[in-house]
Specification:
single chain; elongated; alpha/beta; 8-stranded mixed sheet; 6-stranded mixed sheet; about 15% strand
Length: about 475
């Protein structure tokens, strides 16, 4: 099939099943820019002429399916007309995708967010790949905007209005297993069989699982009841003048069946709101922080945390949650008990699966004697803020470290230069300063002292990214940057 595309690849096999692979040129992750959507429209034009037996839509990126719309284009929406045109572009295209006569399937592996999920919802089938990186959601509300390309119409029909509004109003995501359980995904399969499963499902003729009768009522005659309940819940957390997007989502779903084009004044108000502009600015800043540490190939498997107080205990728990083996040191097991209880609650809440929570808890090892130090790739000191105590600790630690282990302090008030005087090799000391509460706050300051080696700083920054935090490189100074 002769289609000249830059971002998409279209292949048709001997059985007549077409596969459209999105591999956005020059980018590590897929996003739905105007050009990507224009090419997808051209691809559908070709398939109108030569209808396939079925169409599978998938990603050519390791990073995931589709991260959403191209956020960089949002900064160009300086008029109401441009905002409406952006909404219309995706709304009409995905309605067209839903209406094609041949069966369609979205093969979702990795992140599938915002416009990416809206594209997948427009397909007849959604097949989720069961691995840790697969996450599906409509997080537009976190940017102060709404899902304008069909998500507000189709998600309530898939999972029911209460669950759909919960996802859209909080920005929460679902993993593959939960997506299948809720009806968002038609099936959930391991990576090794995803190709075969996609080909079988797209031509199966299998009907979608219908919503229960009560859920259909809530999506129809009882819409106002659901909407009023949702407004009351939102009002507890945000006022419409400060955070208008959640209220707009409820109104657009209730009054316009999710079609924002039927309420252009809502589109204009949301896209031009200071809240949306400021949240988009925060998002862009976060993306800049995510770029720090990408050039480091340092992979920590073992972490040793000294100090089981609120900060140290929660740092240890977070590292265990992200898949690392963690030894937690303090003077006695009794002193570690509160940290272990908090860790258990964190794993239960974040992982939801008892077996995965148990596995994470098994990776968090109480270590009163500090036996984990010689095996650790990263050692983080989180004891009380006393320079003499830190000196004594670091003098004892230095001879026991692996040659290339990161030696870090979580200090928030002491200069690294003052701490490093206890070390024979001060170049290996770096600050990794978390903020409290650790599970909630994504920013981590990576502090370079006067003697800190540049490679040590690079590896520390890479470590912070690999535990899904945002590294902010700063110089050693009182209070560093944030507290100052």
């Amino acid at each position: 099939m002769n289609v000249n595309l830059q971002h998409w690849r279209l292949d048709v096999d001997a059985q007549g099943i077409a596969t459209a692979t999105l591999d956005k040129a020059g980018e590590s992750a897929n996003s739905l820019s105007a050009e990507v959507l224009r090419e997808f429209s051209s691809l559908l034009d070709q398939l109108d002429v030569y209808p396939p037996k079925g169409l599978i839509i998938r990603s050519g990126k390791e990073a995931g399916f589709i991260a959403g719309a191209d956020i960089s284009e949002f900064s160009q929406l300086d008029t109401a007309e441009k905002g409406r045109a952006l909404v219309e572009r995706g709304w009409k295209l995905f309605n067209r995708l839903e209406a094609v006569k041949y069966p369609t399937l979205a093969l979702v592996r990795g992140h599938c967010l915002g416009g990416g999920l809206e594209l997948a919802l427009a397909c007849r089938y959604l097949l989720a790949v069961d691995e840790s990186g697969t996450k599906m959601g409509l997080p537009e509300v976190m940017l102060g905007i709404f899902p304008g390309w069909g998500g507000m119409l189709r998600l309530p029909k898939r999972v029911g209005p209460a669950a759909a509004l919960d996802m859209m109003l909080t920005g929460k995501t679902l993993d593959a297993k939960r997506a299948k359980k809720m009806g968002l995904a038609d099936d959930c399969v391991p990576p090794r069989v995803m190709e075969m499963a996609a080909r079988q499902l797209v031509v199966s003729g299998q009907p979608r699982r219908p919503l229960p009768f009560m859920q259909r009522l809530m999506n129809g005659p009882l819409k106002s009841v659901v909407a009023n309940g949702a407004r009351k819940q939102v009002a507890k957390k945000a006022r419409p003048q400060h955070y208008p997007a959640p209220y707009a989502i409820i109104d657009l779903w209730q009054k316009y069946d999710g079609n924002a084009l039927a309420a252009p004044e809502v589109v204009d108000r949301i896209i031009s709101s200071p809240t949306a502009r400021n949240l988009l600015r925060v998002f862009r800043l976060q993306e800049r922080l995510k770029a720090f540490g990408k050039d480091s190939d340092f992979k920590a498997r073992r972490v040793h945390v000294i100090g089981a107080g609120v900060m140290g205990g929660d740092i240890a728990a977070w590292c265990a949650l992200r898949g690392m083996t963690v030894t937690l040191q303090d003077q006695t097991l009794e002193r570690m008990s509160p940290a272990l209880k908090r860790a258990h609650a964190l794993f239960t809440k974040k992982l939801r699966d008892p077996l995965r929570a148990r596995a994470a808890f098994d990776r968090l090892i109480p270590d009163p004697q500090g036996d984990g130090v010689p095996h650790a790739d990263v050692i983080i000191e989180a004891i009380f803020e006393n320079v003499e105590a830190k000196h004594a600790l670091f003098r004892a630690l230095e001879p026991r470290l692996k040659p290339h282990a990161i030696l870090a302090t979580n200090t928030s008030s002491l200069r690294l230069e003052d701490i490093a005087t206890a070390l024979k090799d001060p170049s290996r000391l770096v600050g990794i300063h978390f903020f409290n509460p650790v599970p909630m706050l994504p920013l981590v300051e990576v502090v370079q002292g006067e003697a800190t080696d540049a490679e040590v700083l690079r590896r520390a920054t890479g470590f912070v990214r690999r535990i899904d935090k945002l590294p902010l490189p700063v110089q050693s100074a009182p209070g560093f940057l944030v507290n100052a």
